[in-house]
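2024-03-11 09:14:02 INFO queue: dequeued item Potassium transporter TrkA, len=621
2024-03-11 09:14:02 INFO validating residues
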Amino acid sequence: MSRPTRRERIRYWFDNTMSRGTVALIGWLAAISAALIAVVTGLVLWLTPVEAEQHHGLAGVLWATLMRTLSPGKVASDTGSAPFVALMFVASLGGLFIVSALVGVLANGLKERFEQLRKGRSRIIERGHTVILGWSDQVFTIVRELVQAHASQRGSVIAILADLDKVAMEDALRTHVGDTGATKVVCRTGRPVEPADLDLMNLDAARSVVVLSPQGDDPDAHVIKTLLALDKRAGDHPPVVAAIANTANMAAARLAGGHGVHLVDSDDTASRLIVQSSRQSGTSVVCMDLLDFAGGEIYLRSDPDLAGTAYGRALHAYQAATVIGLRRGGRTMLNPPADTVIEAEDEIIVIAQDDSMIRLASGMPKAQEDAIVMTAHPVPGPERTLVLNWNGRGRQIVRCLDGYAAPGSILDVASDHPDAAVGVDGLVNLTVNVKDCETTDRYALESLGLGVYQHVIVLSDDRYDAGHADTRTLMTLLQLRDMQTSLGERYSIVSEMHDENNRSLAEVTRADDIVISDTVIGLLLAQLTENRHLADVFGYLFDSRGSEIYPRPAERYVRSGAPVSFATVIESAARRGETAIGYRLADRIGEAPHFGVVLNPDKSRLVRLGPGDSVIVLAEH
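2024-03-11 09:14:37 INFO prediction written
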């Protein structure tokens, strides 16, 4: 290869200099200006000595040339010989180009600087803040819940890092979340998988980290890569909570995140909630109430005063808090046997409006014996369930249903989805049939003979984007409601949707339960961000093994229409081996946001529970 020429060396040096940005460009313009001024000044001193003398020599000529370079308009007032005027005109003309170029360079440099500031590339200097990595619709639920949880804390900060424009993120948060009160929300533009961008979030001083599963194809790959980046970074590692969309990727995510990461299986959690809601109307409303920070929350509390007390008696120990279980040696027990003795090291799991309200009652309330009813629960037999539409979590839902159904039960899947019921095998209690059906078509739905089913589950079709899928679900629900009205049929309807804003529209359809899967996962992530020990509690609630939430007819527990204290309801449930946590009033089912659900009522409060009302209990199915 030939050696570079002098011209190539100079050009290479010049290119490298120019690539240094605005400062280098300004430097070149300054050098060119100085050269122009020096040349014109020298020519004036040489060619026009009279005018040079009039301007007091070198210093005066230098100043005059500088002024005409910076302010070209001054040339209009020049007088003297033709060579002098011509030289001043050259200086003014050169200055015109130089000043124009300088203005352009400065404007462009300032624009680039403002763009950098707009993106938010400065390092966060907060301490004890919550970091959210990634962006999805769940971010609005999480921020809203954390704002609610930190309402009484001054200086609370939520920091968000996502590969989106900073201003766009802030605008979206203002639209969907609104006023954040005492909590400050800081957004930064960057990629959560890049170590340099992670450094912007000051993770060493963070309280906790939430990794969101982004929308789009293969979201878990992004989450796993982010977990790897967090695990490999130097410094302190705050607790991490992450959502995984596909159950099959849980093992890889655990390996990537290490021991300091708690993973939420989005598919499994949403599937179990849909199945539980299909079998017991109101379950999703109760779970949402427990998951958000607006109403009753779940707390873990050590109370040595209850050591040696049987669990059955401890149910009445708190006036304004409801005992639901124990945590012993890292193991969670919800609704344990009534004769389980509480040990000094045990943590008591309670539902309360606020931790300040968890105080022992002055005395054990007495149950109204004459109001207690001990009607036996009917033994469930084989049932028929219909699933309309299909999506990626359909197989998980079928397997969960198989764990609840009585032997001999039948499940029909009606959908024109090409993957409907594919891969569903090895079931114990269910027989699965597939029917081709356009689920928004009235005549196609009527041909299914819905009157033979006890439960109908309407899934969100994953062949469409979230908005269009919700629209199709609403159309199906409207058709089902009209069919129930005109044909006089009755079956429970549970629907899965994506957007929380569509819940109010879906209420017109009077579906028994509407599960907003993204909202549920967002609420769960927010809860675990505040208290990771609740992971076992919620995992227990969503598991088919052990005790779960059941809204059951109130007339099986207390005398219908009689005024009874909630302490009486608790006692009636305890005698069945169940833990009562609240009730649901049938005449308020359509009233948002609680839809008739009352959790953790005062034990002395009197309530009349009649036909259609439910007692909400933790019990084995």
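2024-03-11 09:14:37 INFO annotate: The radius of gyration is 35 Å.
2024-03-11 09:14:38 INFO item closed
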